[in-house]
Design goal:
- By secondary structure, the protein is an all-alpha fold.
- The protein contains five helices and no strands.
- α1 runs antiparallel to α2.
Length: about 80
């Protein structure tokens, strides 16, 4: 429970940064959540934030890599979450 709560907290901060167009900060928070809280349900949203932030930063190859990870690990959610 605590691990999932910490992961969600990191994602909430990343979402806050996304709302303020702080793309690099959002990307870094999402990546931190992914690295440190594997297996948490919040990882799905962290991957989505990472993809969107990478696109905004002009790092399309990094966004494509993250999208492949999302599709490979969460195929059902990937179709709904990424436009």
């Amino acid at each position: 429970y605590l691990r999932n709560s910490l992961a969600q907290s990191e994602v909430n901060v990343a979402r806050y940064y996304m709302d303020r167009s702080a793309w690099l900060a959002a990307f870094n928070r999402a990546e931190y959540a992914i690295k440190h809280y594997q297996g948490s349900p919040a990882i799905i949203e962290a991957l989505v934030i990472k993809i969107k932030a990478a696109r905004q930063l002009g790092k399309n190859d990094l966004a494509a890599d993250s999208l492949q990870v999302l599709k490979a690990n969460f195929p059902d959610q990937a179709a709904k979450l990424i436009q």
